[in-house]
Amino acid sequence: MTKTAGCCQGCLHYVFDYETPKTLVIPSIRVGFVFRFTQFLVVLYVVGYVCVVQKAYQETDSVLSTVTTKVKGFAFTNTSDADPRFWDVADYVVPPQGGDSFFVLTNMVVTPQQTQSRCPELPNPSTSCVDDCDCIEGYSDPRGNGILTGLCENYSTTVKTCEVISWCPLEIDTKLPEHALLAAAENFTVLIKNSITYPKFNVHRRNILPHINSSYLKRCEFNRTTDPDCPIFRLKHIVSEAGEEFQDMAVKGGILGIIIDWSCDLDWWARKCNPQYSFRRLDNKNPANNVAPGFNFRFAKYYKTPDGEETRTLIKAYGIRFDVVVHGTAGKFGIVPTVVNLGAALTFLSLVPVVADWVMLTCMGKRDLYKKHKITHLNEVADTETMSMGTSYGTQ
Amino acid sequence: MTKTAGCCQGCLHYVFDYETPKTLVIPSIRVGFVFRFTQFLVVLYVVGYVCVVQKAYQETDSVLSTVTTKVKGFAFTNTSDADPRFWDVADYVVPPQGGDSFFVLTNMVVTPQQTQSRCPELPNPSTSCVDDCDCIEGYSDPRGNGILTGLCENYSTTVKTCEVISWCPLEIDTKLPEHALLAAAENFTVLIKNSITYPKFNVHRRNILPHINSSYLKRCEFNRTTDPDCPIFRLKHIVSEAGEEFQDMAVKGGILGIIIDWSCDLDWWARKCNPQYSFRRLDNKNPANNVAPGFNFRFAKYYKTPDGEETRTLIKAYGIRFDVVVHGTAGKFGIVPTVVNLGAALTFLSLVPVVADWVMLTCMGKRDLYKKHKITHLNEVADTETMSMGTSYGTQ
Amino acid sequence: MTKTAGCCQGCLHYVFDYETPKTLVIPSIRVGFVFRFTQFLVVLYVVGYVCVVQKAYQETDSVLSTVTTKVKGFAFTNTSDADPRFWDVADYVVPPQGGDSFFVLTNMVVTPQQTQSRCPELPNPSTSCVDDCDCIEGYSDPRGNGILTGLCENYSTTVKTCEVISWCPLEIDTKLPEHALLAAAENFTVLIKNSITYPKFNVHRRNILPHINSSYLKRCEFNRTTDPDCPIFRLKHIVSEAGEEFQDMAVKGGILGIIIDWSCDLDWWARKCNPQYSFRRLDNKNPANNVAPGFNFRFAKYYKTPDGEETRTLIKAYGIRFDVVVHGTAGKFGIVPTVVNLGAALTFLSLVPVVADWVMLTCMGKRDLYKKHKITHLNEVADTETMSMGTSYGTQ
């Protein structure tokens, strides 16, 4: 045998010699039972909780969504304050584009025929005056409505207030109708079209499900029990599902979430991927600490008079903003999470012998026998060991 | 030696005595090969799949994005229906603000000079009447266009329909032009500026890449092969990349997704963080079950006549809504996911001996020899053990 | 004993016999110390880094958010270019609805009284002409402002340019005021109301915190040190917190992010879930490679003259778009991530003996003694084994 061959053989031994622990078989049913039972518990957790309940073997992805909305309905208002008026979609939906957030006007304070001019301020302690000296020219109170001209004018026969440069006449927004002007809005309907994508899994879905046909879509209306898949919603129904009263909400406005949950299980044995609708009021109704409760905003329509002067109609619009909130997570079997969770579980399985050993060596009657056969103390060198230990451990 | 010292030494022994399994070395190349080969497979999976393919050692974060869009282009329409008209951005982009969703008007039904008044309904089976008795005053059909006045009027010389209070004249939206009015919109361009942030990694990027200079930006146009980094897109090109025909889509409208994928690998050895553009139609074109196909909405321009009466021009706008959808995940080396995946892999490595043992003890020729040396049955007490076992296990 | 009983008993032995490794106890303080110290390091990592720093035992969820914004303030402009004018919210906030992105107009180029007509192009090298032959009828230059009529007209007494069909007079957007027109916008305030949900944990929060009362809300203004919870922000303060100068930004516009971080720790021992505000400019101010710096868009107000002709006022609006960006992750103790991380850590603990064995068998003085007791080579069959090995490994 040459030297190289010997070296090579040593190397082969190093690589391919298999080192395996010596084991001791204990034929005790009690220890065996503890061992198997603990194993069973770990397996139960892995199969039952991790796999079935949590589906931890799945990779996940978040939803990308597109929404279009289309409101239908019209109303006719005839109040003492204003002329009779017919309202259609172009009048009461702002913005008109039908994205994932749309506003339905239900109440308003209209101030028509405003022009850039001068008029006395609305009366309140800080604006009332006796003569021009009380009004500082050019000053503007952040809570006021314009820039002071320095004059004190008659607001009414009894009250004098400082004159301001502003859009006049000023808006008096305390005159909000107590009953919503467009009470009829509760019967408007909205069609919501929602397409979603899970880019990681290349899955596309839409909320008009494949089994629904066109004729059904033309007459259906969403109802959680009878028509859970119909994408047409009556506004009153949405609001009442959210636990609110439409007519209450219509007066001061609010924000209502139409929440579409697209949680999907995309494994071939599950194939569950349908939208779930829920509804929730998103602003706080009546908390103690609130500013500007409800929901309103101001916008204006601009006109020009025949002589070229710009006038506007200022509208303080109260209404319900509907926000379509799409969320969801899709899960599909993935190797990495499976391996990670299986690995973690196997680690716990490898802990089971530790438990069984402990039971065997402390609780069993024959523990000394087991100990004697399982554990070898380095006996042969006991004397020298103990001596050297004594030196190193000892405190004398 | 005092008692305390003895106790202390015992304690030290308890803490620092090292318990290690006794092992048996089997110099069998077959068993060794099975062992090493199984180990190799596990390492291959970890290095190859977990690290290289899945990059499971990375922490991830989701993108936050801001988008501005600016459309450019103008068109001139000259049809028999309407006056010749010049269109620019302020006319056809709704809303004008240039956010992440913008609408380009391509076709429309215009109903000018509407006023709050009375007119006969559009003729259809439910609105036609013979005399006033057929029209119930105050009733409003959800599919109609207004509130019935109770009168039956001549719609044309041959047809009588119920009169309604509404914005009159009523819109006749069946007269949609067959060829898109703004066919020229296909040559409009849009500049998309997109800034993104990965807040966890404090990374900011924008889609105008550092190597691009201003003069290139002024003349470039996106093209997947020649100009993949140019942020200026011709609308026709976007639509055709999505597999659609612009002129078809322009007639009834639709929704087109401009999808920007910002998947980033932020590790210093990768440093890959560029946007990838893709385009996809987001609404369904022609499924069997569809309502309101395409994309349209109604909006109105309000005017006042010299005598103060409000009139409006109602526009049913058909067009393409472009949604800029930004998504992406950034990954960067993280200790926790690395440890978790490494831990899982090591667990599988610790399973390898189980496989090798099984092969050794069942498939090898010398399995009895191996078994004899590896496994000790509690022999000394064999008799008593078996007896007690007999009692407990036996069924007689 | 019957045959069945014997088989059954064998089966019971198979299931319940407990196989445990034989171990050797080494009473060496050095090996023990290495063992315990390595164990300690692993435990330190798990407890210190994984649990305390990374909170890897938590499940996470992403935030769903709703935002309403309401700007307050007015301004008065009096420049030589235009009539004195008073501005309020309805004039300068576009769109008016108060969603999570709002635009405050600060500067503008106004082109009033545009009508559909003909006018000479703005002079530049490509539009100037000598006679009609230089102007091709029907041609439209993408960088021009309209469709050529084929005529060459006097733009001024010295310059002739091609006539175009367009909205005339043309906008001259080079006349942008150097100082922002609505410089006063810096003192406008915005109230931001933000409600968030973590759907997985069913947690709802709003940015008006419970301990804040209404009277405080009416007078407070956000300040990072004195009023960090006040949801009312002065625009100037927002911009300066983002490291920008309001008056600079107001001239050409820009995009400013109001970033609300709702990172929450929902475990009962933590209960930390408050918004953190930060501000950052989202567009690039002055990079070398920029197109259309700042932020602007064009919109128009449409009017009708008494004789029914449509005119419009075109506004190129420069201003600051405020984007409210809400992000955040909530974490709460979860069994699966806890088990996974604990499993990974335990795996590393199970590696500790490997390290200790290596130290014991290579670095210790008594390594041969340890080796002799720990490792048994299959001695009895050594001769035959080696021979057969020789045959299989050997190279002669």
UniProtKB/TrEMBL annotation, chains A, B, C:
Q: Which gene encodes it?
A: p2rx4b
**GO MF term (any one):** purinergic nucleotide receptor activity
Identify this protein by name.
Answer: P2X purinoceptor
Cite the binding residues for ATP.
Answer: K70, V71, K72, T189, N296, F297, R298, K316
The annotated subunit structure for this chain is: Homotrimer and heterotrimer; functional P2XRs are organized as homomeric and heteromeric trimers. Homotrimer. Forms heterotrimer with P2RX1. Forms heterotrimer with P2RX6. Forms heterotrimer with P2RX3.
Q: What is the lineage of its organism?
A: Eukaryota, Metazoa, Chordata, Craniata, Vertebrata
Where is the protein localized?
Cell membrane; Membrane
The protein's predominant localisation is membrane
Looking at the UniProt entry, the stretches that span the membrane are: 342-364
Q: Which GO terms describe its biological process?
A: calcium ion transmembrane transport; response to ATP
Keywords, in A-Z order: ATP-binding, Cell membrane, Disulfide bond, Glycoprotein, Ion channel, Ion transport, Ligand-gated ion channel, Membrane, Nucleotide-binding, Receptor, Transmembrane, Transmembrane helix, Transport
Pfam families, per database record: P2X_receptor
Cellular component per GO, a single term: postsynapse
